């Protein structure tokens, strides 16, 4: 036998639970972390959007507002907290990078947690890129 044990026994795995949805990680992270403000379509009309001091950004227009190029690293930096938009006052959007790294460090240790957090933010950023219109 070669390869990981989980791969060898894949045929013996139980079927997924009824109702379970298989979706890309970035989409799942978006639904978990972003929908409340940005809405499920990313246009900024989430269920709590009206309660915020500043309307959430329409995430589907980021490419259009950046001369046709998706601002991948700026979006990544906004999510992880390194990029703040001046003139917007206090930051209402949570710094997800901090929250992610705390969760991931508890599960995977400090170094492993940082690597997992970086991947989570890349997946989320790629999903937001897929929403562009």
From TrEMBL:
Q: Please name the source species.
A: Aquibium carbonis
**Residues annotated as region Disordered?**
1-21
Kindly give the Gene3D superfamilies that the UniProt entry links to this protein: Cytochrome c-like domain (1.10.760.10)
The record's section on PROSITE patterns has:
CYTC
User: Which residues are in the Cytochrome c domain?
Assistant: 21-132
Molecular function GO terms recorded = electron transfer activity; heme binding; metal ion binding
The name of this protein is Cytochrome C
The UniProt keyword set, sorted, is: Heme, Iron, Metal-binding
Q: Do the record's keywords include Iron?
A: yes
